[in-house]
User: Fold SAM-dependent methyltransferase from Pandoraea captiosa.
Amino acid sequence: MTEIANHDQSALWNGRSGAAWVDNRAVLDQMFVPLARFLIDRARDVAQRAPVGRLLDVGCGTGGATLALSQALGAHWSLTGADISAPMIAEARTRAAHARRPVEYVCADVQTHAFTGEPFDLIVSRLGVMFFDDPVAAFVNLRRASRPGAWLHMLAWRGAAENPFMTVAERAAQPLLPDLARRVPGAPGQFGFADRERVEDILTSSGWTDVSLAPVQFDCTFALADLREYATRLGPVGLALAQRTPAERARIVDTLVEAYAPFIQNDEVRFTAACWHLSARAPALPA
Assistant:
């Protein structure tokens, strides 16, 4: 583990939240298949112009998107996944070994980590860059780890109002969990990159060029059978429920699951993920 600047996020993702993501890795990977496909398409575009290269997946979690990218790009690209969560990196390494994919995983705080080896030709992220205490410093570090002219393609959540599914549990639980942590606009977290102008300023201030933020949205699904676990293990509600007695949890969980009714169709949970597509280039060498 390298030097850590994001102490709160490290504690979060190396604790209950990291364990919950490991336990629910299959559900989350299924849920975010459309986002992974989007990044694969962007990566293939880059690979057409640079048949050999290195890719970094920031906030790779349990490695699902990294493995999909490795499969799509083939043997001529080397891939590295980085995440601050030791439990998720351990799971990612196990998955890569089982899949026999030559992906390197690094447990690191990307804001401070000194990446070694050849610079990266492409940096991607599936919802993993909204958590830095100092996002400008993080993107400066990523630029320094990149080859001149390298591409950046990342997905980040837009605002909570555009993603009602993501706050169903919080809204339903608020009357029952008065100590539930409130989200702070712009703070590190799921919707930390909701403000378009702020994110554009972060990227330009950190030295990236050709900066663009484009709104994109994805139709996501997962099995209804997995809803109860999803609603009660992940996010702020999952952390708050862990402090309650079994009887209290059971009562609250029933209320939470009922609140998801508008998103249930037959045996599936369906929702729209409203995201930003962040794209940029590392500065090219002077002519």
Remarks:
- The domain at 7-160+182-222+272-282 is CATH 3.40.50.150 (Rossmann fold).
